[in-house]
Amino acid sequence: MANSNLVIVESPAKAKTIKKYLGSGFEVVASMGHIRDLPKSKMGVDIEHHFEPKYVDIKGKEDLIKSLKKAAQASDAVYLATDPDREGEAISWHLAHLLNLNPADTNRITFNEITKTGVKAGMAAPRAIDIDLVNAQQARRILDRVVGYKLSPFLWRKVRRGLSAGRVQSVAVRLIVDREDEIRAFKTEEYWTIDAKLSANGQRKMFPAKFYGKNKKIEIKNKEQADSILNELKGCRFVVGAVKTGVRKKSPAPPFTTSTMQQEASRKLGFQARRTMKAAQELYEGVEVEGYGAVGLITYMRTDSLRVSKEAQDDAAQYIEQRYGKKYLPDSPRVYKTKNNAQDAHEAIRPSMPSLTPEQVKSSLTGDQYKLYKLIWERFIASQMATALLDTVAADILANDYVFKASGFSVKFDGFTVLYEEGRDEEDEDNTALPPLKQGEELKERALEPNQHFTQPPARYTEASLIKALEENGIGRPSTYSPTITTILQRGYVEREAKSLKPTALGEVTTNLMKDHFKKIVDAEFTASMEKNLDLVETGEREWVSILDEFYGDFADTLATAEKEMEGTRVKVPDEETDVVCELCGRKMVIKTGRFGKFLACPGFPECKNTKKIVQETGGVCPLCNGRILSKKSKKGKVYFGCEHNPKCAFMTWDEPTKEFCPQCGSTLLKKGGKNGRIYCSKEGCGFEKPLPSKKDEQE
């Protein structure tokens, strides 16, 4: 490789894409991620000597390291082109040490986007390795290692062998546990509403109006109060009172950050954070696109910045004008303000080539890649479009001495909503257009309905809402949200229940122990302040060893106190009792967790050693043998539904069984989701099917 330049990146896909743009004279190779780290078998940090880390080559990468050294020695110049963030900077620093490169030389290059323009710009601006970025990453890694290696053995002795503690993960679990405590403590209260359905000017079309009160809002607490008001409203005239019209402006959401991308992919695509980041990584590193070759389709996907380059704004404006017309452009390009604690090293997540539409690349992408690219592309283009305008109307409807309220809107100018609207964790109430209303006009009463309601406890966290809470509380950084959720699920502190995250008994016991003895570790404010300190290291305003010194002194004292206070004590994790009765001894079986997951066990162990697999019934009946249809998981973890008598009975389906039965043949009906979703009969040849109910119908 004489007279050549060596470029080292992290992944083969990224290497392939960059090689295309650099051409001859450059060799591009992959380090396959980290090549050095703290050892797995011991702490690897010398606390007594300024927290000096003892890095070792990662096991299994010996041959790769040899080949990298050989390639570097044979090259005229070596460029370190790992990802443009703290972790990427640290990987480049480790590579420099292994390859005997001077970290102060200008051998570090970064690419915010892996396109011809992005690669050219990166190669034109080589710099020295940013040691402040490296130290910020080292401080985080060492901090997490010290907490894990000091705290985990304590949990082994006091709760259960094999447990591990993480700094950010512990706070995430606490958020979920605290929410579960709120749900349990919530006291449901009854309340009633009175809803009128009215029509105007002899029209058949009805519109809703909600009971408000008199001079002020009346809270209806019970049926007796509702009935009393209804009696007063019997036979009364409904007359239009004050009518207020206006125009409401609706602005587009900013382009994605890592957090908002993960939230929106969860809401709109049903993706877990890990799945989102895998697809985003692939789109950033480059895919083979027909007519373009290997190209990185999005900018760097780990960011909390909202900054957008002028070139990207200009490209988006050109596309918007050509596709929708000039009126869909704002008066001036939109600029979004990044949060104070955000790292502004690179841009928001956007398509690297805004003119490249999702439909143009669809045939070249996997299903996940296409769905995520479409979401990122639409969000970005919409963020550069004109404001939507809504004509609003709000009317007071007078009935005797009471007031009903009606409101609605119609679209005056659709603006950015012609392309995209941001999803919501909670759906907005229906808000439709009202007919023209004039003050003093009498309306026709079509229905007057009392409705009983009960206040609801706060919802459990979903992945989307947990990521939002972590970001709002300043816990973790863009690169940590996905691995944090993955870790707390894998360690058994949290489990999924539908789309919700629910603490396990182990998670609750461990969190309560931590709250009692290690308040700072599970305190959101303390964890957020530590993140701010790491940010100060990154900007060169603080020295990383002093931050670790400050933390460790208090932590060591807290650990010693906890050891003393809990001497001879072990916390029992309560078993979850089920309704399944042990056929050997009559006790109610409990759920245990073993090396292969959860199973049912008799609580009478060791006298009774009965165990069973956990089966999840769906309420469906097998159309072949009348056995129970159970929810099962494939080897890859995908949920499917099969007969309890498998393998004797071969019935299986990916579609969810309902508790409804076919009106034609009596077999279980299955629900198929998606764009062409429907409910259909599970019996082959029956042919019965019907459309899926709307969300409104399901609620009713």
CATH structural architecture of the largest domain: Distorted Sandwich
pLDDT < 50 runs, ≥5 residues: 695-700
Largest sheet: 6 strands, antiparallel, barrel
What best-fitting shape do the alpha-carbon axes yield?
globular
Number of E-type strands = 29
Helical content class: 25-40%
Task: State the CATH superfamily name of the largest domain.
Answer: Topoisomerase I, domain 3
- The top level CATH class name of the largest domain: Mainly Beta
Main structural class: alpha+beta
Domain count, please report it.
Answer: 6
User: Strands of the largest sheet, in order across it?
Assistant: 8-9-14-13-10-15
| Structure annotation, total helices | 18
What fraction strand? 15-25%
How widely separated are the two ends? Answer: 71 Å
The CATH topology of the largest domain corresponds to: Topoisomerase I, domain 3
Radius of gyration of CA atoms, rounded to a whole number: 30 Å
Mean pLDDT, to the nearest integer, reads 91
